[in-house]
Amino acid sequence: MDSVFITVEGPIGVGKTSLSHAISQQCGFQLLEEIVYANPFLGKFYENIAEWSFQLEMFFLCNRYKQLQDIHEQYLHKGISVVSDYNIFKNTIFAKRTLGNRNLPKFLQIYDILTQDMPQSHLVVYLSASIDTVMNRIAMRGRDIERNIKREYMEQLIADYDEFFREFQLRHPDTPVLTIDCDSLDYVHRPQDLAHVMGKIKEQLQLIRG
Description:
By secondary structure, this protein is an alpha/beta fold. The chain has helices at 16-27, 42-47, 49-74, 90-98, 104-115, 131-141, 151-171, 191-209, and strands at 5-9, 30-32, 82-84, 123-128, 177-181. The protein starts with a strand and ends with a helix. It comes from Brevibacillus fluminis.
């Protein structure tokens, strides 16, 4: 295999970007970071989910689509491996929670059209965490735009992620999913935890590359 595409996923605040940076540095992968805070609808969304969800999700979908196009042409197609701190399938997780019956079918139609020929992950790293862990980490990083995130919203989101990955592994048995329990590991502040997680990821890479 000439190039490998790893995506790191999990709820808001769980540590996706930090782990993606570590993978990039230790494995020599090109890093793809999600452009989250450039979304002009994000602050309004946390204040009024029903009012701004469709605009928010369409903005994210179009930006993620363009990023995937770029990494395919500029890196993967040239044999350069990539690690991303998101997977585009997260659009469906959020949309199914936030969009109503009127807009969800339209959104999913557009999603299917845009992603049908996009590069697929060779490995998905799923960062799993409890509501207390996630809310504590969101509070610790202290981003103004996240201060209006409600605990109930995050509880639903965590449940949605868990359900999605149960179904994903049934539908895509050929795509390995490495689940990391972030309640018991803090790879941002404890080097031994990072070494443990990176060891698991490197084991998966050896299997993928044969």
